[in-house]
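USER:
Working in pairs, take the chain set out below, taking as long as you need, and write a paragraph about the fold.
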Amino acid sequence: MKKTIIISLLFLLILTACGNKATADPAQTVERYLQAKANRDTDTIQQLLCSEMESVLERESRTFESVTGVHIEDMACTDEGGGRVNCTGSIMATYGSEDTEFPLTAYRVVKEDGEWKWCGESS
């Protein structure tokens, strides 16, 4: 009996440790969102969009559709509190033969259903 209880507790501990922590931090959520956008990962973008922004899913997913070489350089995001995450770094993309830099900025996040969600640029 004692062995069963110990095994059950260990199993619960392992399950808790393996839980989804990917959106536990606002800055981490924004970094995941921006990487998904650069990778055109529609499923991840959809998971990380706040309900207010669901109507722009297609636009967000297709932002870099007509370019090549999309990648993020030197991204660092910091939770500023109050639903604001400030990021430095850039998204780089090639239009034809010209490299274009899109500087990262400040973003708004909201907590929905216990998870942080990306909710657009912050003013």
Notes: Strands lie at 68-81, 84-95, 98-103, 106-112, 115-121.
